[in-house]
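Renewal narrative, Specific Aim 1. Our central claim is that a sequence can be written position by position from structural information alone. The example that follows is taken directly from our test logs and has not been curated for this report. It begins with the structure tokens describing the chain, in the order in which they were read.
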């Protein structure tokens, strides 16, 4: 029937749109947005609004599965840690898990529908391919986070280098290390997209825990060797406040130079890796993906 054939095409388009919505949802549509708004937790804890349609459809199933088998605290914390390292500060582990659940349901369902329509001996093969695709794509949201972490690390290194430069400029203006840190945070936090999360936490820790403790927490949170060097130098500067800081500032400048060289080296290495990947491989992967996901629905029109 011609009507059925057109219905298959429409269904394929809708499913493809749903897939893209869950993989690349607008930032304003993350579930975490509702729960982060102060004073609205109780009103929004039992309903999901202002999210993508797929998110709304999958949330009841996700909630039910959590009741049957809740996510362990260690796994939840691990996803949260990966989100922070990837720069997804507005997201929560629930967002990642719903994306995983959607992939696990969407791919087998889509392939199963296509298999039922095509029928014949190919039905079981197509259904099996859908299950395999669902299992593979279940890991996709976590794999995407790991890919983002590499770019985030480069961005953090570049922005922390600028932050260190600002700090040195402030210290050179005869400010104490504590005053220089506050000035550097104030001047850098609004311009550092990746580092602002850590700088804002660092600023809050200075006020509540003191500078020495806040520096220790900064090094522990970021877990970067260049941050440890910065922390050690500033702690020594605080310890020897009032004395000649020339040697300490020189050591920090040397660290700054090393950080700048590291930024350049990492970008060069990344570009070398990307340059080794032929363009036709990427085009071929896209062609295979489009053929598997949508192409089968047009077979009935031929």
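The sequence written for that structure reads:
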């Amino acid at each position: 029937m011609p009507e059925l054939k057109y219905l298959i095409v429409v269904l394929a388009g809708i499913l493809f749109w749903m897939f893209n919505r869950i993989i690349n949802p607008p930032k304003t549509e993350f579930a975490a947005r509702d729960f982060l708004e102060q004073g609205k937790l109780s009103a929004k804890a039992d309903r999901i609004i202002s999210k993508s349609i797929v998110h709304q459809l999958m949330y009841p199933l996700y909630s039910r599965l959590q009741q049957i088998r809740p996510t362990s605290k260690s796994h939840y914390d691990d996803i949260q840690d990966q989100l922070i390292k990837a720069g997804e500060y507005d997201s929560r582990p629930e967002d990642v898990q719903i994306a995983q659940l959607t992939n696990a349901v969407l791919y087998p369902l889509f392939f199963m529908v296509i298999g039922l329509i095509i029928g014949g001996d190919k039905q079981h093969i197509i259904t099996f391919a859908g299950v395999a695709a669902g299992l593979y794509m279940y890991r996709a949201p976590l794999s995407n986070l790991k890919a983002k972490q590499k770019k985030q690390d480069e961005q953090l290194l570049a922005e922390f280098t600028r932050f260190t430069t600002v700090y040195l400029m402030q210290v050179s203006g005869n400010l104490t290390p504590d005053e220089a840190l506050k000035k550097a945070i104030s001047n850098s936090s609004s311009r550092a997209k990746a580092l602002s999360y850590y700088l804002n936490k660092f600023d809050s820790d200075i006020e509540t825990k003191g500078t020495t403790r806040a520096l220790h927490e900064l090094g522990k949170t970021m877990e970067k060797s260049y941050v440890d060097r910065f922390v050690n130098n500033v702690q020594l500067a605080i310890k020897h406040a009032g004395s000649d800081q020339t040697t300490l500032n020189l050591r920090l400048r040397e660290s700054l130079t090393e950080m700048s060289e590291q930024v350049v080296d990492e970008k060069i290495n990344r570009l070398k890796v990307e340059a080794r990947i032929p363009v036709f491989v990427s085009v071929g992967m896209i062609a295979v993906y489009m053929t598997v996901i949508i192409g089968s629905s047009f077979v009935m029109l031929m």
